[in-house]
Structures are given as structure tokens and as C-alpha cells.
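User: I'm writing a short methods note and want a consistent example. For GNAT family N-acetyltransferase, I'll paste the sequence; you return only the C-alpha cells, no commentary, since I'll be parsing the reply automatically.
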Amino acid sequence: MFHRTQRLFLRPIWPEDWQAIYHGIADEGVVRNLARAPWPYEQDHARDFAALPHDPVNPRFLITLPGNGEPVGCIGIDPHEGEAEMGYWIARDHWAKGFATEAGQAVLEIARMMGHARMVASHYIDNPASGRVLRKLGFLPTGQTETRMCLGRGEKVQATAYALSLDSTESLRAA
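Assistant:
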């Protein structure tokens, strides 16, 4: 599955993308905000991630810049405790450019088309920038703080939980 936004091109992750993934994510400042990426992040981690099978219900995308194909980060839908969870990372060189919000809007459109009724997400409490992205996308805080394992930090970390109904009438009110 492919998706084009105003400034980005989202495409499936292929095994040969491992180097681009590695160069974008092998940064402690990126990994420390992710639940499933270990630190130090090694080349084999990127190879394994890029080789994961494609799940048509829960797609993952490499976020790239059209034209030159430069990788910006990754975004996708993962199953989490019976719900669809949006997760993403953006390479440090591309922070504060609105790419996470733009890619997130695309993934929410895809999730609606695929029939997901609800999406959840969370951010570690010491990463308020992700909270701002989630709120821009229409996610609402659930009022719950969860303790989630962070492989990058090697410990459990407090995370603020968010949810978004993908019902079309609610989405129109949020826009």
C-alpha cells in the first residue's frame, strides 16, 4: 500500500531499506521515545525490522520525501491489547517540520478505509512533542497514565494514553 500526501510519500518497508532505517533511528534521542526499539540500536535490529512480514490489516510505512526518496521516518498501525495503535518515529534531521502530523493524518485515512473504528496511541510523559502531534491529529487523552516498557531505556516508563474514534461523523467534528 502506498500513500502520497502534500509533502510525503508513504510506502511499504522492504528488506533493502534496512540501511535507511538504521541511519534514521540509530540515535538515542529517537529510540528513547519508542517502546519496541532497543538501545543501542544495531544494524541487525534494522535488518530484522525491515524484514518483518507485511500485515495488510496493520500496515507499516517508510516515510520518504518524494523525488529523492530520502527517508524521514516510519509510521504504522500495530495491534496493542486488542486495539489498533498508531506508532511512529521521525529521524532527528526532520524534527519540527510537521512530518509526524502529516504522516499521521495519512495513516488515519488509511485506518478508516481499512475499517478500523478506533485508534489508540501514547507518548512517554517526558516527550510532550508527541503529545502535541497526537492532539493535532484529533486524539484525545483518555485520562489514563500507563506504565509501558521502553526497550531503548531498558525500563518501564509512564506514558499518557490517547484514543481517537475513526467514525466519520466524529472525524468531521474534529476537523
